[in-house]
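Reply to dn_fold:

You asked what the input looked like. This is it:
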Amino acid sequence: MTTLEFDAVTKVYSVRGAGHITALDDVSFTLTSGQTIGLVGQSGSGKSTIAKILTQLETPTSGEVRLDGQPIPRRGKGLRAYRQQLRMVFQDPFASLNPYHSIRYHIQRPLRLDKVVPKAQEDSEVRRLLERVRLDADSVIDRRPHELSGGQRQRVAIARALASRPKLLVADEPVSMLDVSIRLGILNLLADLQREEGLGVLYITHDLATARHFSDEILVLNQGRVVERGPADDVILRPQDPYTQALRAASPDPDHFFATTTGHHGGAA
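and this is what came back:
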């Protein structure tokens, strides 16, 4: 079992003219393989800062991130090994894919960099990964991102993330830029992959309905602090903190949302 510990992390930015801004204030959680944690909050709550720290785009002001009990290396082979274990699915599937390269190239590159399979097996592995995310490999493998729909591009981004065979996945608002009609298909795909591959998933979202549906545990962030945490149903159905209560009151009814969108389950749009 792979365990990621985010231990008492604080992140303070120095902003010219505004002094110091605390983006994260003593945030802790533990993510293990086979588990999904929903990280819920509005814009500016600190969700993206957590993602940047986990992907080593930022470093904590204080606190520590550990993988299987060991601090994350800052450089060299150790950092590379960490990044192979933890991959990210970004919010905008078009911006995260290079428009000049084919779908084959996007998925083949991490296979080659991380030496996942022998070179002779790269093509068959690219095809396997595309089929794994429910795309027809023959129809998309030699296309470029702009030739695919938004949902197809996000499936390619997920296949690319899986190419390195990670144990942990950070999904940062993975469906917020997609049409409502195809969001559930992508989320169901992520849920199936999490279960079948035993992945640990940190699902970052502002949407309480999908957080409840796809998470084992939910953390609610407000202005950089965790104001509520617990099993998904407890947090959503019986919120204790006024901020969580306000989010719940402002969100669409989860059961209504899923009742009206289940017709799109598993679609490859």
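The chain has one domain: 3-263.
Hope that clears it up.
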